[in-house]
Amino acid sequence: MIAFIARSSVQKIVTLFFVSIVSFLIIHLAPGQPSQVDPLNPKFTPEMVARYRQAFHLDQPLYTQYLYFYRDLFTGKTVSWKDNRSVLAKIWERFLKSLPLFIVGTILTWTISFPIGIRSAIARGSAFDQTTTFCAYLLISIPGFFFAYILIIFVVQTFQVPVIGMQTFGLNQSSVTAAVMDRIWHLLLPSVLGATGGIAVLSRYVRSQMLEVESQDYVRTARAKGLPAEQVHYRHALRNALLPFVTMFGLILPGLIGGSVIIESIFSWPGIGRMAYEAILARDYPVILTVNFVSAVLVLGGTFVSDVLYLLVDPRIRL
Amino acid sequence: MTFLTRSDILLAVQDLSVHFRSEDQVARAVEGVSFDVQRQETVCLVGESGCGKTVSALTILGLIPQPPGEIAGGRILFDGRNLLDCREDEMQKIRGNRIAMVFQEPLTSLNPVFTIGDQIAEALETHADLTSAQRVERCVQLLDDVGIPSPRERLADYPHQLSGGQRQRVMIAMALACHPELVIADEPTTALDVTVQAQILRLFRALQQSHAMAVLYITHDLGVVSVIADRVYVMYAGIIVEQGLRAHIFDAARHPYTQDLLEALPTRSKRGRRLYSIPGAVPNPAAKPPGCPFHPRCRYAIPTCGQQPPGMCDYGDGHRARCPVLFDGGPSHWGQETLTGKV
């Protein structure tokens, strides 16, 4: 076990090193430079640009820039080129705002997909199965932004509640209940929307996984033992069907920082996805690269968590 | 031979037909099959792959998925009761309790994520009223019975930690957990190598005597049959073509298919000679030849064979073969649905 952790940590650090190089190169090779942004801005004089380039080492060779950047990152001194604020602080602040969206969305996705997928697999071909199959394909096919606007129109017109942003402006004097309800309404729609796509895809995946397991010999053995149907499905089949999802569970970690650019943009949610998107438009390299680096760490951390979870749930896996 | 009375019959399958329906065709996997198993007797159901032996066995336990499976007719009398009329919850009380099954592939038939102790105890949990301590003792006892060394330590093992032969022993222990009256063994030794196969067969023999149970043993291996069977049913393309005591089948086979199978069996006297193989292949269950399903491959076939279904011909003493061509009283047995069960 300790050997596994040591080995996988070394592997992951090596991977991270290459990720850092590649992402650094991609960002710098992409067209556009921070000093070229907005040439029509009268405050952006040539002297200003020169000073800017010097301050951020932009005239030095790429490998020097690379070293400067990662030195700053690891000493926590990276600042955004846009507003000179610490990047880590910015990310943390936005992360906290994205977190409720992420948590509610993930809980909705996982708690709804599994019962749906399992039931349609057990009652294959039934009305329930056909209905959920139809709905799943419908939700997969509808573009997210389109569905979002339809939902917004529907909710706003039916319930007369505002849903854009994190809360309604100027609601400070209202009662606690009203404020809480306002927050919930603002949280609900983007979360539900973020979850629908996930539910549609994940429930299909659960269904096919469950169907595959149901046709295995050991399920027949369980029935031949005279076990009640629920025990056959929910103990023998489900336990095996869940194995691949353990891997997926580790991989939702990166979603913490990626957030959803589209949903956060539609709902003007000040989350981390939107911050990354805006940083790309502004060629704010430190923010882009830091977000990139943190997601790489989360992806690697997620795969590590998956490996460990797999070890715990599948007795066949030995390290 | 002893003459058995009616009450000695534990399982009687009568005129059973099982079909599988797909979009454009119907596969008649089992067609009018009748056989019975007496208490404490070993009956072998022999035939090539796809002849309907496994389907018959699974139908007894109600494990045929419906759809696409469909029981087109017949009765399965177990201890006088028609299992085809039983509700699912009644079947659950019989499965694993009064009738247990041992499957072909011990690796895939054991659940990889549960310990073997768990899997054996499950049947006891469902059918027997024991405390958990008693269950553990019973599991240890069962593993010991099937010859697994240091059984107490093995309880916490997962299937992948055992060898193929040990896994099959675990499957057998699982089947024996609730003292079943009938064990259906579906090619339990096919996936094992020959020495292990011999051990498992000996184990079956011994357990059958010590537990006083009947065994319905399904196999394609006549070598196995010659070792364990009291009585034999030979199946071909969904029908029984010959039945009788072990001696009838091995010393006086009356059906061309049985004769061909025996000729294809390697024995010492055939050493150095090329083994016989039956020409042609088993017909597709969705497109069986008319008349006798074996006639396209049969060396004795006459034109009538392709036109009329052959009836059972009685050779006395429980020995019957479905081949009027080789029967002295010939023509009268054509097209006639049998003399089975009337003697």
What brief labels describe this structure?
heterodimer; A: 319 residues; MetI-like fold; globular; B: alpha/beta; Rossmann fold; 8-stranded mixed β-sheet; 4-stranded antiparallel β-sheet; 29% helix
What does this structure look like?
The complex is a heterodimer of chains A (319) and B (343). By secondary structure, chain A is mainly alpha-helical. Chain A has one domain: MetI-like (MetI-like fold, Orthogonal Bundle), CATH 1.10.3720. The longest helix of chain A has 39 residues. The model of chain A has no long low-confidence stretch (mean pLDDT 83). In chain B, the strands form 2 sheets. In chain B, strands 6-7-8-3-9-10-12-11 form an 8-stranded mixed sheet, sandwiched between helices. In chain B, strands 2-1-4-5 form a 4-stranded antiparallel sheet, with helices on one face. The C terminus of chain B is likely disordered. Chain B has one domain: P-loop containing nucleotide triphosphate hydrolases (Rossmann fold). Chain B has 11 helices and 12 strands. Chain B is of the alpha/beta class and 343 residues long. In chain B, 45% of the residues are buried. The chains are: A mainly alpha (319), B alpha/beta (343). At the A-B interface, helix 8 and helix 9 of A face helix 2 and helix 4 of B.
